[in-house]
Amino acid sequence: MPKPRLRTALCTAAATAMTAAGIAALAVPQASGATSTAATGDALSSRWYAAAPYLMPLDNDPPDAATVMDATGIKAFQLAFILAPSGGGCSPTWGGTAPVSSDTAVGDVIKTIRAKGGDVSVSIGGYGGTKLGQACSDAASTAAAYQQVIDKYGLKAIDFDLEEPEYENSTAIAHEIGAAKILQQNNPGLYVSVTTAGTTDGTGWFGKQMLNEAKSQGFTPNNFSIMPFDGGFSGASAQTAALTKFNQILQSTFGWTESEAYAHEGFSGMNGRSDSGEYFQPSDFQTVLDYATSHHMDRFTFWSVNRDRQCSPPDNNGRTSGTCSSVPQTDWEFTKFSVQFAGATPPSTSPTPTATSTPTPTATPSPTGGCTAAAWDASAVYVKGDEVTYNGHAWKAKWWTQNETPTDTDWGPWTDEGAC
């Protein structure tokens, strides 16, 4: 696929500038094993981590997270990117230059988000730079490096963004997948997403090899997400076609049914003008959002909030930017689609398109009788594992759901656990 050069070039330039200016403010010593005060925060519904858009907290003119939260209703951000040190070694840094162990800058961003009732996931990898899977000697040491990030920030979610050039290195990918499995086992409840390149056929040869590696190690994350951009895509129809084909790849690789594959599938887009000159308007995001929700996909995200504002002029003279979208829009317009995916209603302070759907009639739950779970409520949000009572039966949610009457079908969100 064409390479997302922008993410490398802009991040590297920004990181170099910060280093040249002296980022001593980021290097406040901290005791070994200490946990930052940023670690205080309550876990959100997994749907918010699934909807979290990417935010670069140190590069690409980061917007104030609190302002974005107030304007859109978003509660979670995907902070990017964790890399190995540019000078070598198996320890986590932000962008290859700012050690996680001594960080205060990103910690302050996280504290701001959590103070407003939100939370973060952290993304490792991305395009370019040296990844920890390449620098560390095995899966265990790779996992230990990522565990430092989880402990430092008290994370409940993490994203493995496995792209070029790392995903062409089978040994590095084995380290990354092995590390993800270890983290999943050692951090119960950790939300784990795996993001990789998208092609018009779903994903390419290296993406398929990554899935095979996951299968061979017996690792199943919350989702495998593809990035359908920078690969000859033209708007939403090409993206949804790729998501359909990726679903078929997941089915054939893991032996899942179509609905099981969608429940483990995610979308990671690029808002506005892509690196290769493709254009994705708000209307395209609406179409993909409708596809994702109607197929009960697990994740909907995009890169990045830093770009979710209008350039001046709006088309940015036909150039792609890391700090604006190069398409006409209102500020944070793309972020509101993530809010809708999470199941919330964005503030109506701007003419942002809203998801359209046909309301499901609200059913009146039957008396609970001998059931111990609360009666199903059409207005409530349920996540995987939640139990309810409906029509004298106990039901368990397979994934996030709201206003979907409990019915025992393969494609539906509920499992009938029997009469009370």
Number of domains: 2
What's the main sheet like? 10 strands, mixed
**Mean pLDDT figure:** 86
- The residue fraction in helices comes out at 25-40%
| CATH classification, class level of the largest domain | Alpha Beta
Secondary-structure content class: alpha/beta
Q: By CATH's scheme, which homologous superfamily of the largest domain applies?
A: Glycosidases
Radius of gyration: 21 Å
CATH architecture of the largest domain: Alpha-Beta Barrel
Strand content: 15-25%
Low-pLDDT regions: 1-5, 8-35, 350-369
Shape: globular
How would you portray this structure in words?
The protein has 420 residues and is α/β, with parallel strands linked by helices. It has helices spanning 5-21, 46-51, 65-72, 105-115, 132-135, 139-153, 170-186, 205-217, 235-254, 258-263, 282-294, 335-342; strands at residues 54-55, 76-83, 93-94, 98-99, 119-125, 157-162, 191-197, 223-227, 265-270, 272-273, 279-280, 299-303, 381-382, 387-390, 393-397, 401-402, 414-419. Strands 1, 2, 3, 4, 5, 6, 7, 8, 9 and 12 form a ten-stranded mixed β-sheet that branches. A hairpin with a 3-residue loop joins strand 3 (93-94) and strand 4 (98-99). Helix 7 (170-186) crosses helix 8 and helix 11 (282-294) packs parallel to helix 12. The longest helix is centred in the middle third of the chain and has 20 residues, at 235-254. The protein starts with a helix and ends with a strand.
